[in-house]
Specification:
13 strands; 344 residues; six-stranded mixed β-sheet; single chain; five-stranded mixed β-sheet; alpha/beta
């Protein structure tokens, strides 16, 4: 059966792209866009392992976005030893395939007593883009992060994108890979190590993007960049912020976060998702449970507004966290703040 399935999937025209397979990526590159990092990771993994293939919306067929069935097909292929990468135009559209992601992919290894692995990656843009309305703008990090059996990652930089995607493809378990559309065109410096074909980033390990001593700012995806900008502003006022890039939503690197809070004694979490039951809420609960005695101020949570995303540009800005929101929250934690009521 496995041989027949591989033969059938191998007949799909978008399984491999010879043009991509023959492309080389020079180690002399100093800057790399996030989209290039993702493409190079896919290219190399597909070239190195014939069981890896790409399938999804707008893959291999123009205007094929709304043809259904590829999520379940991919899960079935993973049952039989292939390694599908399932691409969604946006994770909002993945709601149509959420039964396959959660009931079929996430739970099967446990329900089969470990006899069936599901090596599959679900990837695509997550969270708000720009002016695309409520049905294209939701952050699903906390949704998928709540599900046992899934691994959930959310890259910020080109290094994150390349290393985490390679790790996700090689992982024996289902991985939800949450990208951000607004980061695709951003360029980041990359080292020769990052460009090595064997480079991976361990799933479940956060990165300290900037060390500091006064307040810990914990974020993921695009909000890492906002947090770093906030840290630059805070430094002008004598506040030395530590910025943590979670990289992984599940498993969550609680040890790195708690170690940081035990050093700075203050915590600010930042995310674009809804505040209720959010990733920041889980981080705060972990810190209160494990490091409460080290806190010198209440924890601060910055999140998107608790409303569906407005379409109007002026309202969209208000509904999403901004750099100034992070600055004010950090100042409140350090007792150098404007009143809470003046944060908007």
């Amino acid at each position: 059966m496995l041989k027949n399935l591989r033969r059938a999937v191998g007949a799909i025209p978008f399984m491999r792209n010879p043009a991509l397979a023959s492309r080389s990526y020079s180690v002399s590159v100093k800057q790399m866009m996030v989209r290039e990092a993702l493409n190079s990771a896919l290219d190399e993994e597909m070239s190195a392992d014939p069981t890896v293939f790409l399938m999804g919306e707008e893959v291999g067929e123009y205007q094929g976005a709304y043809k259904a069935g590829f999520t379940g097909l991919g899960v079935g292929a993973a049952y039989y030893g292939l390694k599908p990468v399932i691409e969604f135009m946006t994770f909002n559209f993945a709601m149509q395939g959420v039964d396959h992601i959660i009931n079929s992919a996430a739970k099967t290894n446990y329900m089969s007593s470990g006899n069936i692995n599901v090596p599959i990656v679900f990837r695509g843009p997550n969270g708000p883009a720009a002016g695309v309305g409520a049905q294209h703008s939701q952050c699903y990090a906390s949704w998928y992060g709540a599900i046992p059996g899934l691994k959930v990652v959310s890259p910020y930089s080109s290094e994150d994108a390349r290393g985490l995607l390679k790790a996700a493809i090689r992982d024996p378990d289902p991985v939800v890979f949450l990208e951000n559309e607004l980061l695709y065109g951003e360029s980041f410096p990359v080292s020769k190590q990052v460009l090595d074909s064997d480079f991976t980033i361990p799933i479940g390990k956060a990165k300290i993007e900037k060390e500091g001593n006064d307040v810990s700012i914990v974020s993921f995806s695009r909000m890492v960049g906002f947090s770093l900008k906030a840290a630059e502003i805070l430094a002008k006022d004598g506040i030395d912020a530590e910025v943590i890039n979670l990289r992984s939503i599940r498993p969550l690197d609680r040890s790195t976060v708690n170690a940081s809070v035990r050093k700075t004694n203050r915590l600010v979490t930042v995310e674009e998702g809804f505040p209720q039951h959010g990733v920041g809420a889980e981080i705060c609960a972990s810190v209160v449970s494990d490091s409460f005695g080290y806190l010198d101020a209440p924890v601060e949570r910055i999140a998107g507004a608790d409303v569906p995303m407005p379409y109007a540009a002026n309202l969209e800005i208000i509904a999403l966290p901004q750099v100034d929101d992070i600055v004010r929250a950090a100042k409140r934690a350090c007792y150098r703040s404007v009143p809470l009521s003046a944060t908007r």
